[in-house]
Amino acid sequence: MSDQKRLFLVDAYALIFRGYYAFIKNPRINSKGEDTSAIMGFMNSLLDVIKRERPDHLAVCFDKGGSADRVEMFEAYKANRDETPEGIKTAVPYIYEILKAMHIPIMVKEGFEADDVIGTLAKKAEKEGYKTYMVTPDKDFAQLVSENIFMYRPVFGGGYETWGIPEVKAKFEVNDPLQVIDYLGMMGDASDNIPGLPGVGPKTAKKFLAAYGSMEGLLANTHELKGKMKEKVEANGELGLLSKKLATIMLDVPVEFDAKDFEMSEPDIPKVTEIFQDLEFRRLIDNFLKTFSSETSTTQPTVAKTENNKPKVTPKEAENAGAGQFSLFGASPSGSATTQTTNEFTRKTIENTSHFYQSVAPGMATTLFVKNLLNQTSVCFDTETTGLNPLTAELVGIAFSWEAGKGFYVPFPEKKEDAQKLIDILRPFFENEQIEKIGQNLKYDIKVLAKYNVEVKGKLFDTMLAHYLINADMRHNMDVLAETYLNYTPVSITELIGKKGKNQLSMRDVPVDKQTEYAVEDADITLQLKQHFTAELGEANTQKLFDDIEVPLLRVLAAMELEGINLDKAFLNSLSADLETDITNLKAKIFEVAGEEFNIASPKQLGIILFEKLNLVDKPKKTKTGQYKTGEDILSALAKEHEIIRNILEYRGLAKLKSTYVDALPLQVEEATNRVHTDYMQTVAATGRLSSNNPNLQNIPIRTERGRQVRKAFIPRNDDYTLLAADYSQIELRIIAALSQEETMIEAFKNGEDIHASTASKVFGVPISEVTRAQRSNAKTVNFGIIYGVSAFGLSNQTDLSRGEAKELIDTYYETYPKLKAYMSEQVDFARDHGYVKTVLDRRRYLKDINSRNAVVRGAAERNAVNAPIQGSAADIIKIAMINIYNKLSLGNFKTKMLLQVHDELVFDVYKPELEEMKALIKTEMENAFVMDVPLDVEVGVGRDWLEAH
């Protein structure tokens, strides 16, 4: 590193937008419902720059009010931009507050863009001998690059790249970075609404610059051009010059570069930490403290002082400190003010919190402990095991806590017979119906204990389920909950056993004293969370849902998962061979049309074949990296017109079916039971639906013949049993008919009519007896599509209708069912007023974007406002049915077992002598699970496998 001072200028909004959209598929929502994605993304980037580069001088530059000069030149400048997302608008004031607390200068000037502020400061700093790094992904800044001014660009996937003069020359194929202005002026900029020269793209702009050097050079030599290009350039010369002006970064903004004001100085650590705590940034606090901590350095640089007496470090000292171990503000002796400040604002941990955690010795101590345990009314317990799979994991110990800050740990012997003797001593607690049992993810503990023939009886309180009902969009693991609600960071499991891999220990390898601290802490913290969530369940009006649905369902799911289902592996092996033949035949067809062999699974190779060689589309869409888009949505839109596309989509479907299910399912059979045991998750889908995992049995394709055949592999336990599948018929349509009080629909369901034929009859104005198959199919698509906010474009893609016909069909549908449309509007209005919608059982779905000014974001929230109560109500109803059926099967000591839940369907392993009784019982319980103005209807099927039963 040279002694030349370095200034880093951060393009604030570029990094804020980048951070926001990095989390767009999984936004960061805190317990207050705030979207903190943009703040987190920006701060991660800023701290990354500070850690990587250890700058001497730094400032963050913002826009304010847009560019007055450019708008005056061209009224439509940036007029095409969407409304700034709500999550970014709310983020900016927080970012200002954080930067002020970090003592980082904020550079902003009314009527100027950040580009112009950065450009002006960069040039002024250059004159004073500084190297300036412009932190931005925006290519426009390339025009400013010089011997001492660089672009510092964040790149996709992490890290940064530096653009100096050679990189800019190579990237834009110019002789001088200043020619980037001409390049941008010629081709225009869609994001800024800079028009450019019509018909001129990147390749043509580079060609013109190579020949004529500039926009002015091109316009002076239009006589050398030919055909339409000559006409376009000559006719739009003034537009080209205007575009060049619009693309030119201004260098005369009234801002000053005073080096002292830009020096890196020590942040107000307590203030920044307080803001991060308020935003619930757990890891970011650690990242921030490490970035500005003296403890990360082994070789400390000398502390210099600024005029305002804030420490700083010179580049040479930073270099001496060693990369990755840099202490930004120099040495701080143990016990100094810096160290104390850092420790004062870290979260509570086991190290700094008073607690009493004790292990229980065998013999008399265990007997006395159990006696004390049985005197409690509510106890939190947590099992420690040898692994994550409850079907194979063995008990290592169990922690108990019934008073905050205190708890006990019972270690288990390794020998199975000794472990069984110990659990039998503890059995009276677990099977005592008067003692409430508290836990985090109790389903796991229940399944582990079931292996030792112990049943967990009495009232249950699961903190994971409770938090799911309080804030479904947040994560629900204990560490996150502890940090969010208790300001406490628990000991990480990786601290005990290490990270994943061959060197990871088993919990058995951990000394008992460490097991005790770790396990009892979990029980203690879970107990404290229970006390916190009990109040919040009442405030959210979800206590009844918790007590009557989610907790009882926990037991049902545990029993289903323990039971598992039998799998015909020989059939799957046969199906795999058939699929391989189908896939080979499809590849041959695709290669024949393509005229060559290529990797169909490679988006890059596929894109070149479809859009360059076969030229299927005039203007194919591309990704940001310039690769052709070949996703499902793109290809599906082309499938009607091109057989090769249909074959590719079929190839993808079969390849996925083979790898994900046909070949994978046999590998997921448990050796001990010879059955497949899926794991049902209650806390994933915000609508209340269950999710299935390891393996996911809910996503097995059923729309294709080959997909349906996978169900044939699921069979009864033996010849004494048969499979029974019970499926709610059109439950979501019945729910929306009842909720909207749409009489026409209600009557159709009550009369047992084919609802799709009935809808077609009304919408197309023909007697129900004359409805064609195509009309019924289109009506069916609309019936289900309305629930998900289908558009004319979407309906057109799903049917043979043109977009105009699809729009007309939707309009007619709403005219036919006016109360349905009114209900949908009422749901959106309710969501706007309350911030949530709810199911028939008062399950809430919070919609943070329902009042967003961004039309796209708001539209998605509006669709959820309509869909969530319907889909969520269907989920609630089948949960009630599952609980009631499970209770009837248990009380009646039936041999029949409930095995699977797949959306609106339940699958049972029925003992043949109980078959007729089960048909009646299951149908009755499902149809009477919830009473509405529309009757629920259940179709029951029986078969030698799941396909036949369905």
Query: How can the largest sheet be summarized?
Result: 6 strands, mixed
- What oligomerization state is this entry in? single chain
CATH superfamily of the domain at 356-540: Ribonuclease H-like superfamily/Ribonuclease H
Count the strands? 24
SS field, number of helical segments: 39
Say what the CATH topology of the domain at 356-540 is.
Nucleotidyltransferase, domain 5
| CATH class category name of the domain at 356-540 | Alpha Beta
Rounded radius of gyration (Å):
33 Å
Shape: globular
Give a nutshell description of this structure.
With 950 residues, this protein is of the alpha/beta class.
Would you mind describing this structure in some detail?
With 950 residues, this protein is an alpha/beta fold. Among the domains are: 6-174 and 250-260, Rossmann fold (3-Layer(aba) Sandwich); 356-540, Nucleotidyltransferase, domain 5 (2-Layer Sandwich). The protein is 49% helix and 11% strand. The strands form seven sheets. It has a six-stranded mixed β-sheet with strand order 3-2-1-4-5-6. It has a six-stranded mixed β-sheet with strand order 9-12-11-10-13-14. Strands 22-23-19-24 form a four-stranded antiparallel β-sheet. Strand 22 (897-902) and strand 23 (905-911) form a beta hairpin. Helix 17 packs parallel to helix 18 and helix 34 (792-798) packs across helix 35. It is globular and about 95 Å long. The protein starts with 5 loop residues before the first strand and ends with a helix.
Show the helix and strand layout:
Blueprint: E1 6-11, H1 12-22, H2 37-53, E2 57-61, H3 68-73, H4 86-89, H5 91-101, E3 106-107, H6 114-127, E4 131-135, E5 149-154, E6 160-163, H7 165-172, H8 179-187, H9 202-212, H10 215-220, H11 227-235, H12 237-247, H13 269-279, H14 282-291, E7 304-305, E8 311-312, H15 315-321, H16 337-344, E9 356-359, H17 364-373, E10 378-385, E11 395-403, E12 406-411, H18 416-430, E13 436-439, H19 442-450, E14 460-462, H20 463-470, H21 478-485, H22 493-497, H23 512-539, H24 543-563, E15 566-567, H25 569-594, H26 603-613, H27 632-638, H28 643-662, E16 679-681, E17 691-693, H29 705-709, E18 714-715, E19 721-728, H30 731-740, H31 743-750, H32 755-764, H33 773-787, H34 792-798, H35 803-816, H36 818-834, E20 836-838, E21 844-846, H37 855-891, E22 897-902, E23 905-911, H38 915-927, E24 938-943, H39 946-949
Parallel strand pairs: 1-2, 1-4, 2-3, 4-5, 9-12, 10-13, 13-14
Antiparallel strand pairs: 5-6, 7-8, 10-11, 11-12, 15-18, 16-17, 19-23, 19-24, 20-21, 22-23
Helix pairs in contact: 1-2, 2-5, 2-14, 5-13, 8-9, 8-12, 13-14, 17-18, 19-24, 20-23, 21-23, 24-37, 25-28, 30-36, 30-37, 32-33, 32-35, 34-35, 35-36, 36-37, 37-38
